[in-house]
Amino acid sequence: MPSVTIHTPQNVEIDYETARLGSRIGAWFIDAIVLLLSYLCCLYAVEQLGAGLNDDVALRLGPVFWVVLYFFTAEWLWRGHTVGKRLLNLRVIRLDGEDPTPADFLLRAVFLLPDVLFTAGTLAVLFITTGQRGQRLGDLVARTVVIQTDPPAGVTLVDLLKIRHRDHHPVRYPAVQRLSEADMLTVQQCLLRYRRYPNRAHREALALARARLLEVLALDAAAVEPEAEAFLETLLLDYIVLTR
Protein backbone atom coordinates (compact mmCIF):
# COMPACT_ATOMS: atom_id res chain seq x y z
CA MET A 1 0.00 0.00 0.00
CA PRO A 2 1.47 3.42 -0.96
CA SER A 3 2.34 5.59 2.00
CA VAL A 4 3.35 9.16 2.72
CA THR A 5 5.75 10.41 5.38
CA ILE A 6 4.61 13.53 7.23
CA HIS A 7 7.23 15.69 8.94
CA THR A 8 5.52 17.26 11.92
CA PRO A 9 6.48 20.70 13.33
CA GLN A 10 8.20 18.79 16.17
CA ASN A 11 10.55 17.17 13.59
CA VAL A 12 8.88 13.78 13.97
CA GLU A 13 8.27 11.62 10.89
CA ILE A 14 4.97 9.71 10.81
CA ASP A 15 4.00 7.29 8.05
CA TYR A 16 0.41 7.18 6.80
CA GLU A 17 -1.20 4.96 4.20
CA THR A 18 -2.54 7.05 1.34
CA ALA A 19 -6.18 6.63 0.43
CA ARG A 20 -7.02 3.89 -2.03
CA LEU A 21 -8.52 5.03 -5.33
CA GLY A 22 -11.58 2.85 -4.84
CA SER A 23 -12.19 4.36 -1.41
CA ARG A 24 -11.91 7.90 -2.79
CA ILE A 25 -14.36 7.13 -5.59
CA GLY A 26 -16.73 5.51 -3.10
CA ALA A 27 -16.52 8.53 -0.80
CA TRP A 28 -17.25 10.82 -3.76
CA PHE A 29 -20.42 8.87 -4.67
CA ILE A 30 -21.64 9.00 -1.06
CA ASP A 31 -20.99 12.74 -0.98
CA ALA A 32 -22.72 13.12 -4.36
CA ILE A 33 -25.87 11.56 -2.89
CA VAL A 34 -25.67 13.90 0.11
CA LEU A 35 -25.14 16.84 -2.25
CA LEU A 36 -28.11 15.93 -4.43
CA LEU A 37 -30.50 15.43 -1.54
CA SER A 38 -29.39 18.57 0.29
CA TYR A 39 -29.61 20.67 -2.89
CA LEU A 40 -33.12 19.44 -3.66
CA CYS A 41 -34.14 20.23 -0.08
CA CYS A 42 -32.64 23.71 -0.46
CA LEU A 43 -34.55 24.33 -3.71
CA TYR A 44 -37.76 23.14 -2.08
CA ALA A 45 -37.23 25.44 0.88
CA VAL A 46 -36.58 28.42 -1.40
CA GLU A 47 -39.72 27.63 -3.38
CA GLN A 48 -41.81 27.35 -0.21
CA LEU A 49 -40.54 30.71 0.97
CA GLY A 50 -41.79 32.22 -2.27
CA ALA A 51 -38.38 33.51 -3.36
CA GLY A 52 -37.96 33.77 -7.11
CA LEU A 53 -35.12 31.70 -8.56
CA ASN A 54 -33.92 31.78 -12.15
CA ASP A 55 -34.04 28.32 -13.74
CA ASP A 56 -30.59 28.72 -15.34
CA VAL A 57 -29.09 29.59 -11.97
CA ALA A 58 -30.82 26.69 -10.26
CA LEU A 59 -29.83 24.12 -12.88
CA ARG A 60 -26.38 25.31 -13.97
CA LEU A 61 -24.62 27.60 -11.52
CA GLY A 62 -26.42 26.45 -8.37
CA PRO A 63 -25.01 22.89 -8.30
CA VAL A 64 -21.47 24.15 -8.94
CA PHE A 65 -21.70 26.58 -6.04
CA TRP A 66 -23.29 23.88 -3.84
CA VAL A 67 -20.45 21.42 -4.51
CA VAL A 68 -17.79 23.97 -3.58
CA LEU A 69 -19.73 25.08 -0.50
CA TYR A 70 -20.37 21.53 0.70
CA PHE A 71 -16.81 20.25 0.42
CA PHE A 72 -15.31 23.43 1.86
CA THR A 73 -17.69 23.55 4.81
CA ALA A 74 -17.63 19.83 5.59
CA GLU A 75 -13.85 19.43 5.45
CA TRP A 76 -13.29 22.63 7.41
CA LEU A 77 -15.76 21.93 10.20
CA TRP A 78 -15.02 18.17 10.40
CA ARG A 79 -11.23 18.53 10.27
CA GLY A 80 -10.62 16.91 6.90
CA HIS A 81 -13.75 14.76 6.67
CA THR A 82 -16.88 14.80 4.57
CA VAL A 83 -19.77 12.39 5.04
CA GLY A 84 -18.26 10.02 2.48
CA LYS A 85 -14.73 10.32 3.85
CA ARG A 86 -15.88 9.69 7.41
CA LEU A 87 -17.87 6.61 6.43
CA LEU A 88 -14.94 5.16 4.46
CA ASN A 89 -12.24 6.18 6.98
CA LEU A 90 -10.51 8.84 4.89
CA ARG A 91 -9.14 12.17 6.01
CA VAL A 92 -7.42 15.19 4.48
CA ILE A 93 -4.13 16.25 6.12
CA ARG A 94 -1.34 18.65 5.21
CA LEU A 95 2.04 17.43 4.08
CA ASP A 96 3.91 19.64 6.53
CA GLY A 97 2.12 18.17 9.55
CA GLU A 98 0.21 21.36 10.35
CA ASP A 99 -3.59 21.41 10.51
CA PRO A 100 -5.11 22.37 7.15
CA THR A 101 -6.36 25.95 7.10
CA PRO A 102 -9.72 27.16 5.74
CA ALA A 103 -7.80 28.45 2.70
CA ASP A 104 -6.44 24.93 2.07
CA PHE A 105 -9.93 23.44 2.18
CA LEU A 106 -11.26 26.19 -0.07
CA LEU A 107 -8.55 25.49 -2.66
CA ARG A 108 -9.37 21.78 -2.61
CA ALA A 109 -13.07 22.56 -3.04
CA VAL A 110 -12.55 24.99 -5.92
CA PHE A 111 -10.25 22.60 -7.77
CA LEU A 112 -12.96 19.94 -7.68
CA LEU A 113 -14.36 21.78 -10.67
CA PRO A 114 -11.51 20.86 -13.08
CA ASP A 115 -10.62 17.67 -11.18
CA VAL A 116 -14.09 16.12 -11.17
CA LEU A 117 -17.02 18.18 -12.43
CA PHE A 118 -15.67 19.54 -15.72
CA THR A 119 -13.72 16.38 -16.66
CA ALA A 120 -16.08 13.69 -15.30
CA GLY A 121 -13.41 12.72 -12.80
CA THR A 122 -10.82 11.68 -15.38
CA LEU A 123 -8.33 14.40 -14.41
CA ALA A 124 -8.54 13.44 -10.74
CA VAL A 125 -8.08 9.74 -11.51
CA LEU A 126 -5.12 10.53 -13.78
CA PHE A 127 -3.34 12.58 -11.12
CA ILE A 128 -4.12 10.11 -8.30
CA THR A 129 -2.95 7.02 -10.19
CA THR A 130 0.21 8.57 -11.63
CA GLY A 131 1.34 10.66 -8.66
CA GLN A 132 3.61 9.24 -5.98
CA ARG A 133 1.33 10.37 -3.13
CA GLY A 134 -2.05 9.82 -4.74
CA GLN A 135 -2.83 13.53 -4.91
CA ARG A 136 -5.31 15.11 -7.29
CA LEU A 137 -4.68 18.58 -8.66
CA GLY A 138 -6.49 20.22 -5.75
CA ASP A 139 -4.25 18.36 -3.30
CA LEU A 140 -1.11 19.49 -5.10
CA VAL A 141 -2.18 23.13 -5.01
CA ALA A 142 -3.28 23.00 -1.36
CA ARG A 143 -0.30 20.83 -0.27
CA THR A 144 -2.63 18.20 1.15
CA VAL A 145 -3.02 14.45 0.87
CA VAL A 146 -5.90 12.06 1.61
CA ILE A 147 -4.98 9.23 3.97
CA GLN A 148 -6.61 6.05 5.26
CA THR A 149 -7.50 6.40 8.92
CA ASP A 150 -8.73 2.86 9.51
CA PRO A 151 -6.28 0.74 11.58
CA PRO A 152 -4.29 -2.01 9.85
CA ALA A 153 -5.98 -5.40 9.45
CA GLY A 154 -9.38 -3.90 10.24
CA VAL A 155 -8.73 -3.63 13.97
CA THR A 156 -11.33 -1.61 15.89
CA LEU A 157 -11.35 0.01 19.29
CA VAL A 158 -13.26 -2.92 20.79
CA ASP A 159 -10.47 -5.31 19.73
CA LEU A 160 -8.29 -3.76 22.43
CA LEU A 161 -10.36 -5.69 24.97
CA LYS A 162 -8.23 -8.69 24.03
CA ILE A 163 -5.19 -7.08 25.67
CA ARG A 164 -6.59 -7.79 29.11
CA HIS A 165 -10.06 -8.71 30.39
CA ARG A 166 -11.76 -5.48 31.35
CA ASP A 167 -13.37 -6.98 34.48
CA HIS A 168 -9.89 -7.21 35.97
CA HIS A 169 -8.83 -3.74 34.93
CA PRO A 170 -9.10 -1.01 37.62
CA VAL A 171 -9.70 2.43 36.12
CA ARG A 172 -6.77 4.76 36.77
CA TYR A 173 -7.67 7.83 34.75
CA PRO A 174 -11.44 8.58 34.91
CA ALA A 175 -10.82 11.92 33.19
CA VAL A 176 -10.41 9.98 29.94
CA GLN A 177 -14.22 10.13 29.60
CA ARG A 178 -13.77 13.72 28.39
CA LEU A 179 -12.20 12.42 25.20
CA SER A 180 -14.18 11.26 22.18
CA GLU A 181 -14.03 7.88 20.49
CA ALA A 182 -12.33 9.57 17.54
CA ASP A 183 -9.60 10.75 19.91
CA MET A 184 -9.13 7.24 21.27
CA LEU A 185 -9.03 5.74 17.79
CA THR A 186 -6.20 8.16 16.99
CA VAL A 187 -4.36 6.97 20.10
CA GLN A 188 -4.99 3.39 19.06
CA GLN A 189 -3.59 4.04 15.60
CA CYS A 190 -0.42 5.50 17.12
CA LEU A 191 0.01 2.30 19.14
CA LEU A 192 -0.72 0.04 16.19
CA ARG A 193 1.69 1.89 13.92
CA TYR A 194 4.41 1.69 16.55
CA ARG A 195 3.85 -2.04 17.01
CA ARG A 196 3.85 -2.56 13.27
CA TYR A 197 6.83 -0.27 12.61
CA PRO A 198 8.79 0.04 15.91
CA ASN A 199 11.13 2.77 14.71
CA ARG A 200 12.35 5.97 16.32
CA ALA A 201 9.80 8.17 14.56
CA HIS A 202 6.85 6.23 15.91
CA ARG A 203 8.38 6.07 19.40
CA GLU A 204 8.62 9.86 19.32
CA ALA A 205 5.02 10.05 18.10
CA LEU A 206 3.95 8.00 21.14
CA ALA A 207 5.89 10.33 23.43
CA LEU A 208 4.22 13.37 21.87
CA ALA A 209 0.79 11.76 22.24
CA ARG A 210 1.54 11.02 25.90
CA ALA A 211 2.64 14.60 26.57
CA ARG A 212 -0.42 16.04 24.84
CA LEU A 213 -2.84 13.78 26.73
CA LEU A 214 -1.20 14.60 30.04
CA GLU A 215 -1.86 18.26 29.26
CA VAL A 216 -5.46 17.76 28.07
CA LEU A 217 -6.41 15.52 31.00
CA ALA A 218 -4.47 17.63 33.54
CA LEU A 219 -2.48 14.63 34.79
CA ASP A 220 0.78 14.75 36.71
CA ALA A 221 3.54 13.16 34.65
CA ALA A 222 5.14 11.76 37.81
CA ALA A 223 1.93 9.92 38.72
CA VAL A 224 1.47 7.99 35.46
CA GLU A 225 3.39 5.27 33.66
CA PRO A 226 6.73 6.61 32.40
CA GLU A 227 6.52 4.45 29.29
CA ALA A 228 4.35 6.12 26.63
CA GLU A 229 3.12 2.79 25.24
CA ALA A 230 1.96 1.55 28.65
CA PHE A 231 0.28 4.86 29.48
CA LEU A 232 -1.64 5.01 26.20
CA GLU A 233 -2.72 1.39 26.53
CA THR A 234 -4.02 2.08 30.04
CA LEU A 235 -5.95 5.10 28.79
CA LEU A 236 -7.58 3.01 26.08
CA LEU A 237 -8.58 0.31 28.53
CA ASP A 238 -9.94 2.91 30.95
CA TYR A 239 -11.98 4.44 28.15
CA ILE A 240 -13.44 1.08 27.16
CA VAL A 241 -14.35 0.16 30.75
CA LEU A 242 -15.99 3.54 31.38
CA THR A 243 -17.88 3.90 28.11
CA ARG A 244 -18.87 0.33 27.16
Q: What order do the SSEs take from the amino end to the carboxyl end, as H and E?
A: EEHHHEHHHHEHHH
Write down the Rg.
Answer: 21 Å
Task: Report mean pLDDT, rounded to a whole number.
Answer: 83
What count of structural domains? 2
Shape: globular
The parts where pLDDT drops under 50 for at least 5 residues are: none
In order across it, which strands form the biggest sheet? Answer: 1-2
Structural class: mainly alpha
Q: How much strand content do the residues show?
A: 5-15%
Q: How would you summarize this macromolecular structure in one to three sentences?
A:
With 244 residues, this protein is mainly α. It is 55% helix and 8% strand.
